[in-house]
């Protein structure tokens, strides 16, 4: 993600404070100069950069600062707050209400990724158990309905459109009415775009808006135009009541910072950012976690949300088995399924403190996902007796015929099947140790609940299994312990750490 370059430069500037023996005006000015240069390079408006610099300077007064204060921490805190302000318009976005129809209208210029983003948002809510659907009211662009049809069919999202009707108002009205009658909760209406801001586009938008009376109008913005986003957002806001903004293509352009800050300057809340072409590449946008991730400080709140989305705590049977140190091959298969549901590895890694979102490259990420799928394919070739046996590893070690059968059934080598069984043996050993650690599943403060010696042994066992790159960037054993503690406190459950451990396994080469 190109925004990571901006994050690295700002982090490097902040780290210069730690290297300085004395914190004074000269050090502060040098740091601010580097931060401002990085922001300008990311196409952030010079007016906003100047304001950030002035605000930090106004907070930090060395002459009036008390002797016992931590100057480094005060400066870092001031910079963090100003960076948050840069992308936070201070306006609360629309919150859909479950159990009733929420009509969402999409607007934007052609080529901004509007139609693809419609599908991504519908899929996002579908995963959260909302009844979501999509209406294609784009009659201007040839192939628009075909694109919606293809995307929605692939993602299993109900859709509505017409090859014969040419009036977008009629299509939008009919589609919304139909889905309301069928009890849908999240109804997205995709409208026509243009190559530029034309009066005919605005007239059509108004007509559709007046007909369907949307609860929220989302403006889709292309990040590659940088700070020019501000003019576009203002032009659209003057014509229709823009409720929120989604910025696309943030994964591949240096002007992403400019786009984010420019939209915030129009007082339009950014609700999601598009970070890739895949249907999962849509991230909820929250200002503090975003800046925190940008600077490599992680987003534990987001990571816990991801874990909670899987409803791991609902799986009482698995929790009970782990409490007693039991873990079958089927349990491992189900955990792999959960990892796949959590979304791209790079997003997950960016949420862990000390990691940047580009820690796993796109190539490595695809390799990791392919590796997990391959492991699951092998397990698909196993029978119920093998998957549900409390000591499945022994079955395969004693009877090599089982290894041969699974290898032939899944199209892999016998060596690969044996490697899978070896990894399962390691996981089962960790779970056995987890079952023996009293207080691990109580939730709350792990330091108070768990015997430190037992926890240290468990962490050592987990560290042996993890990708060395992952463990190193976490900060070694102490970093792993800290992450486990934060996950335990936030998720109040014992499976978050196990899920992330398996993520580390998925990334292992």
From TrEMBL:
It is found in: Cytoplasm; Endoplasmic reticulum; Nucleus speckle. Residues 269-282 form the SRP54-type proteins GTP-binding domain. GO terms for biological process: SRP-dependent cotranslational protein targeting to membrane, translocation. GO terms for cellular component: cytosol; endoplasmic reticulum; nuclear speck; signal recognition particle, endoplasmic reticulum targeting. It comes from the Eukaryota. One of its GO terms (molecular function) is GTPase activity. It catalyses: GTP + H2O = GDP + phosphate + H(+). Belongs to the GTP-binding SRP family. SRP54 subfamily. Keywords: Cytoplasm, Endoplasmic reticulum, GTP-binding, Hydrolase, Nucleotide-binding, Nucleus, Receptor, Ribonucleoprotein, RNA-binding, Signal recognition particle. This is Signal recognition particle 54 kDa protein.
């Amino acid at each position: 993600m190109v925004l990571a370059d901006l994050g690295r430069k700002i982090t490097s500037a902040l780290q210069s404070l730690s290297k300085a023996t004395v914190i004074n005006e000269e050090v502060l000015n040098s740091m601010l100069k580097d931060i401002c240069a990085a922001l300008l390079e990311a196409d952030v408006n010079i007016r906003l950069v100047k304001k950030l610099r002035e605000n930090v300077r106004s907070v930090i007064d060395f002459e009036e600062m008390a002797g016992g204060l931590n100057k480094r921490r005060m400066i870092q805190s001031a910079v963090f707050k100003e960076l948050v302000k840069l992308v936070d318009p201070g306006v609360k976005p629309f919150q859909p209400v479950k159990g009733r129809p929420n009509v969402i209208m999409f607007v934007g210029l052609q080529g901004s990724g509007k139609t693809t983003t419609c599908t991504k948002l519908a899929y996002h809510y579908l995963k959260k158990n909302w009844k979501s659907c999509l209406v294609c009211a784009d009659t201007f662009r040839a192939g628009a309905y075909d694109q919606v049809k293809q995307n929605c069919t692939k993602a299993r999202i109900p859709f509505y459109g017409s090859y014969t009707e040419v009036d977008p108002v009629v299509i939008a009205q009919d589609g919304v009415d139909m889905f309301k009658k069928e009890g849908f909760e999240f109804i997205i209406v995709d409208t026509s775009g243009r190559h530029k801001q034309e009066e005919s586009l605005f007239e059509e938008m108004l007509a559709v808006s007046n007909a369907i009376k949307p609860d929220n109008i989302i403006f889709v913005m292309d990040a590659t135009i940088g700070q020019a986003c501000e003019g576009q957002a203002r032009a659209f806001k003057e014509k229709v009541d823009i409720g929120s903004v989604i910025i696309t293509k943030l994964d591949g352009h240096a002007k992403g910072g400019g786009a984010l800050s420019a939209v915030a300057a129009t007082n339009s809340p950014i609700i999601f950012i598009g970070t890739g072409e895949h249907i999962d590449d849509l991230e909820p946008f929250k200002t503090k976690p975003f800046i925190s991730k940008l600077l490599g400080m992680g987003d534990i709140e987001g990571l816990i949300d991801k874990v909670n989305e899987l409803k791991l705590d609902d799986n009482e049977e698995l929790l009970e088995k782990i409490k007693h140190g039991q873990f079958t091959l089927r349990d491992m298969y189900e955990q792999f399924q959960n990892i796949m549901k959590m979304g791209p590895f790079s997003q997950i890694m960016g949420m862990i403190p000390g990691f940047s979102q580009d820690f796993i490259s796109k190539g490595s990420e695809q390799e990791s996902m392919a590796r997990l799928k391959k492991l699951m394919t092998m397990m698909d070739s196993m029978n119920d007796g093998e998957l549900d046996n409390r000591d499945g590893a022994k079955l395969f070690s004693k009877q090599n015929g089982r290894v041969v059968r699974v290898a032939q059934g899944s199209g892999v080598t016998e060596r690969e099947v044996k490697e899978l069984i070896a990894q399962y043996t390691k996981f089962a050993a960790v779970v056995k140790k987890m079952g023996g650690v009293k207080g691990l599943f109580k939730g709350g403060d792990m330091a108070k609940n768990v015997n430190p010696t037992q926890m240290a042994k468990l962490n050592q066992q987990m560290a042996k299994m993890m990708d060395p790159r992952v463990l190193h960037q976490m900060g070694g054993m102490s970093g792993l312990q800290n992450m486990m503690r934060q996950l335990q406190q936030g998720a109040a459950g014992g499976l978050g750490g196990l899920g992330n451990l398996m993520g580390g396994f998925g990334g292992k080469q």
